[in-house]
Write the structure tokens for this entry.
Amino acid sequence: MKPFLLETLLHWVAVGFYILATVLFVHALLWNHVHRVRWARWLTALGLLPHAAALIVRWIEVGHGPYMAKYEVLSSNAWIAVLMLLVVLWRRPSWAGLALVALPASILMMGMGLLASPQARDLPPTLRSIWLVFHIFFTKLAVGAFLLAFAAAVILLRKLKGAASRFLERFPAAEVLDASMIRFVGFGFVFWSTTIIAGAIWAHQSWGRYWGWDPIETWSLVTWLCFGTLLHLRLFYRLGPRATAWITIGCFGVSILTAFIFPFLIPSLHSAYFQ
Amino acid sequence: MSPASSTPRPPAGWGPFRALKRFLRLPAVIVAEILVITAACSLGASLAQAGRSPAAEVARLQQHGALVSALVRGLALDHVFTSLWFLAALVFATASLSIVVAEQIRRLRAAWGQAPAEAHFRNAPFRREFTRPASTDAVVGTHIRTQGRLALAGSPLFHTGLLCVILAGALQALFGVQAVVDVYEGEVLPATTEAWGAQWPGPLGRPFRLDEPLTLLSVASTRYETGDLMTLRLKLADQGPGGQVREMGINDELPLSRGRLYVEAQHGPAALVEWAGPSLAPLRTATLLEKKETAAFGAYIQGPGTLRARIRVPMPADGRRPDHAEVRILDGASRLAEGVLKPGEALPLPGGGLLKLHGLPYWARLHGNHDPAIGLAYLGFILALLGAALTYGVTRVDELVAVTPEGDRERVVVALRPHRFAPLFQERFERLVRDHGGEV
Ligand code: HEM
């Protein structure tokens, strides 16, 4: 079988598993068959395997990681989102409600990826570096963690407002959400630090300096400083859950602008390859 | 809201700078410093910056209405990263950071060996007392255990790392140097500072130079089917007898005793030509051709008097080296002669004389770089990352289990005191209670 055909087939098999898992999550959570959440988790994990295989086939076929074409980027984003969902559910089963948002979002990303042009793009030689792989992988992990913090913040604000629904009931109590939110921000902060450091080492290798005030480079520093400010404010002033949640939402917005919007709008060394 | 009483505390001591130290250690000052740096970075990343953005965009920013122009001038918004206010904020932040790091290290040394006492658990977030039947294998007494002590080192390591990176950046800006030169195959690059086409030393930095002369032996590139560059490798030889041959490429630097050489993608063919004529002394030139079209390089070469040659070298699509050049001889705007030359061939000029093409070697752009504090920067990266990972990946948890006999039963006190994220430890506490015979 041709690699492209194999990769497409594997992608669709993964989408199939994810759709089945979503249906099962909806059934288990909204119709109160909580013991079936375990089956839904297994189905999701099964989907992750053909999805990973599709990404590996693509990697071998085009000779570089999933960071050049829209198709590769969206598919790898979805893979990381599903992986993070499973890790969270393994550590905190009471967060199962997250699946109702994360899985449809991943399916949507994969669908958009599969409809985008699958044409491979050649990797410029400066991008041939293991640091690029770390740089991109940790950006995705960081955004994933910030997304979880954002989700915790939104649900927390709804709960603090006194809203009640079957969906909200599927999440832990407000103080647990508050602690989880900061923990996710903390993990995201570590991953984002890794992204910046991997990028700096790579820039030193390729461009002769580890820091050059390139606009996207600087925006990533701004994002990191925003989260740093949040963590200081929380620690120094014992910020309450409501204020922390609002600042987390703002910081998440900055991280999304930096990772997904600015590279397409601002002329920068970073965007030259992707625009 | 008032600042938490435990963090941060005013520095101890009665030195002459106590008031300043106190000021720099205030939570509001620390947050303000970080916010000013964040604002500066956002402005610098959003607005056109002199020396980085196209000059027309910088000029547009400088003349964008009276108010904006005044702001640009007043706040140096067209060169934020070298503005006084940004540098001042960095200096203040570094001073605060140094005070905090010194204090954190002192605190860490004091806290590291401290074992929590029973009193420490009196107001623990998780605490339960219950009785159970006396068991023969249970050890009566008080057992206190601390896990995740490494978390204590997280913040000190992180801030020490930050301090190292800031200091390394300052040292690099002051003492570092960047240099660039274009060299063609066969050319010798002397070990002098003048050999470099351009140099950008820091205010206290020494210009860049090689340890010893180097000859560029070859420039080899491979291309994708689309014609885009895939790899670029350079072979260089040390001068002198038995000169060692060394290789480098993109993302594969050549270390020197003081700094290193690296290459980016810029390379192309050069034209070695000779103008000769009955009344002319031979004039030999080596001209680096530039990429003028997608698949061709070219340049104008000045000849004797008003003569010029326009050289165009089409690049084969399969990545092979070009083997000919299209040559046009011009006198002012009028065309005198034209032809296709292979290396070794010559084009006769009207009125006698000729233009000979000696060769089409490749040239490549070499960058020289010396950063005396690169080791400190990398150390800072490692410490900061390790510190952040310890801060959020490890939580210090103190655990107390006290068992006292009570007739034929035992009274058990179980307490858990996580130093942060307490609500996330509910399940662990319940497990602990169950493990000691209590009910949840
Ligand atoms: C002006 C320079 C800075 C100073 C003086 C400073 C000071 C402090 C202090 C006093 C603490 C409390 C530590 C403790 O309780 O042991 C702290 C915590 C922290 N700082 Fe900084 N800091 C600075 C810059 C930064 C920056 C630039 C970042 C990252 C963007 C950062 C990230 C953190 C983090 C992640 C924590 C731990 C927060 C927590 O425990 O949740 N700091 N800082």
User: Anything to note?
Assistant: Chain A touches chain B through 50 residues (CB under 8 Å). Chain A has a mean pLDDT of 89. The CA atoms of residues 33 and 117 of chain A lie 41 Å apart. The pocket of protoporphyrin IX containing FE is lined by residues A 224-225, 228, 231-232, 235; B 7-8, 30, 33-34, 93, 96-97, 100, 104, 155, 159, 162, 391 (CB under 6 Å).
